[in-house]
Amino acid sequence: MQRMPLSFLTPGTEAVVTDVRAGHGMLNRLSAMGICPKSRITVVCADRGSLIVSVAGSRYALSKGMAMKIHVGISAPGGAA
């Protein structure tokens, strides 16, 4: 599984959150959105300054800075780990 910050993903990519490297306040905010380790997240749109992501059927806008603190894992093509 390849790991990288969420902001590096292209629209349409689905990944699993592996780690959130943020302060206590941001951790609580992201957790309330359903963004926590082991949750599935999909990048819907990536603009210059923000990302729109889908988590558990809801869509949220995140700044690129916030998305850099969310690390995700994506499976290699063909299912190889």
TrEMBL record:
Keywords: Iron. Pfam families: FeoA (PF04023). Residues 4-74 form the Ferrous iron transporter FeoA-like domain. One of its GO terms (molecular function) is transition metal ion binding. InterPro entries: Fe-transptr_FeoA-like, FeoA-like, FeoA_core_dom, Transcriptional_repressor_C. PANTHER family: FEOA FAMILY PROTEIN, SSR2333 PROTEIN. This is Fe2+ transport system protein A. The lineage of its organism: Archaea, Methanobacteriati, Methanobacteriota, Stenosarchaea group, Methanomicrobia.
